[in-house]
């Protein structure tokens, strides 16, 4: 938000602000492709620490840059620093998931994932809700200073995480084998093939919730101002916090039934999105978005646990890196595609069609994971 605000204030260009987002997504995609090459050579906790410390270095550079008058050189340097921050940030999610698998027993994994997700969503809610307020009151440098302090806190927290793992520095695997191991596993495993197909459909549809599309919906479909744009975003993140707490309470019930819970969450999310496309009442729209949060969390947390059950920590890091790279690539295409579709057919129809695609994804998962029993391979480690 701070970088986008700086670029917009200096240039007034929406294109440059959008470029910053695309650079961030593309860097995370490259990160997902690169991580398997080094994940066998270092301990996962060491890699995670390295990624956080490197982000601190480049974030310090970013704080210095936004005090300079914008020039071509400063702009290029800004994008380079942003790409490095995003690249190393891309390590975080797959490694974090692998470490959770390593330190939490299978029976407690759903609860652990839901608790961590509730914390994640709380900070996302606070960030998106109060980020703009912080920028207007404190300014860009102070806000980035807070981000710097939070990453420093993250590094301190990582020092207290004890993971029993052995580094495979003597691994004889070649570079190509290390890079492709996760991709092979992802497409050869019966259950994971279905989940990645669902993920790609949902990633393409997911950009209907990016700023430009939601703002268009608020103005054209609901007839409200930018204030309601903030309400819609806030309601969604509040719903995800509630959803994380719900999953925490339902964790025992979900054990051994992860596939059906994931499909149920996907179907509900699709149905609510479909209905959302027809709504004109802003309060009803707000209520539907609030309900989407728990639906998405049930789907997401069940899926996260199924991925963790599919392989050991080292292989899991490679699988999740490959998955993240594919998802980020789909998001890049989606940002362009959804924007064009919104202009061509209107924002309401975009949400209605997205709801249909999400429900199709859930039905596809139901047939393959539940009816054809391919989800059984992901319900537990032993399976």
UniProtKB/TrEMBL annotation:
Q: Signal peptide: which range, if any?
A: none
Compartments in which it is found: Cell membrane
Which positions, given as ranges, span the membrane?
15-35, 47-66, 72-92, 113-135, 141-161, 194-216, 228-248, 260-278, 323-342, 348-371
Of the GO CC terms on this record, one is: plasma membrane
Organism superkingdom:
Bacteria
Q: Which UniProt keywords apply?
A: Cell membrane, Membrane, Transmembrane, Transmembrane helix
Mind listing the GO molecular function terms for this protein? Answer: transmembrane transporter activity
Look up and give the membrane topology term: Multi-pass membrane protein
Q: Which InterPro entries match?
A: MFS (IPR011701), MFS_trans_sf (IPR036259)
Q: What is the name attached to this protein's record?
A: MFS family permease
What is the scientific name of the source organism?
Answer: Thermaerobacillus caldiproteolyticus
């Amino acid at each position: 938000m701070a970088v986008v605000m700086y670029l917009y204030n200096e240039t007034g260009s929406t294109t440059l602000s959008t470029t910053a987002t695309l650079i961030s997504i593309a860097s995370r995609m490259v990160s997902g492709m690169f991580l398997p090459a080094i994940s066998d050579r270092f301990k996962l906790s060491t890699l995670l620490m390295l990624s956080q410390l490197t982000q601190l270095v480049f974030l310090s550079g970013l704080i210095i840059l936004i005090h300079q008058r914008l020039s071509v050189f400063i702009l290029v340097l800004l994008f380079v620093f942003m790409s490095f921050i995003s690249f190393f940030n891309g390590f975080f999610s797959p490694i974090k998931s692998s470490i959770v698998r390593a330190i939490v027993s299978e029976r407690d994994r759903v609860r652990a994932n839901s608790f961590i997700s509730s914390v994640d969503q709380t900070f996302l809610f606070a960030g998106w809700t109060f980020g703009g307020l912080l920028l207007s009151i404190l300014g860009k440098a102070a806000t980035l200073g807070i981000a710097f302090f939070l990453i420093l806190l993250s590094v301190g927290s990582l020092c207290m995480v004890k993971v029993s793992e052995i580094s495979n520095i003597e691994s004889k695997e070649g570079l190509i084998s290390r890079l492709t191991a996760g991709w092979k596993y992802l497409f050869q495993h019966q259950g994971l093939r279905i989940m990645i197909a669902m993920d790609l459909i949902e990633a393409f549809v997911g950009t209907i919730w990016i700023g430009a599309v939601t703002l268009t919906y608020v103005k054209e479909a609901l007839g409200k101002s930018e204030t309601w744009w903030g309400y819609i975003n806030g309601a969604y993140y509040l719903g995800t916090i509630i959803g994380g707490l719900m999953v925490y309470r339902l964790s025992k019930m979900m054990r051994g039934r992860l596939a059906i819970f994931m499909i149920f969450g996907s179907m509900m999310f699709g149905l609510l999105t479909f209905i959302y496309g027809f709504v004109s009442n802003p309060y009803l729209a707000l209520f539907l978005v609030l309900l989407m949060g728990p639906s998405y969390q049930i789907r997401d947390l069940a899926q996260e646990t199924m991925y963790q059950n599919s392989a050991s920590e080292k292989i899991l890091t490679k699988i999740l890196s490959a998955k993240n790279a594919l998802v980020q690539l789909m998001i890049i295409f989606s940002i362009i595609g959804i924007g064009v579709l919104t202009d061509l057919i209107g924002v309401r129809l975009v949400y209605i069609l997205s709801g249909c695609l999400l429900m199709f994804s859930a039905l596809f998962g139901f047939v393959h994971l539940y009816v054809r029993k391919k989800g059984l391979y992901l319900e537990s480690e032993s399976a």
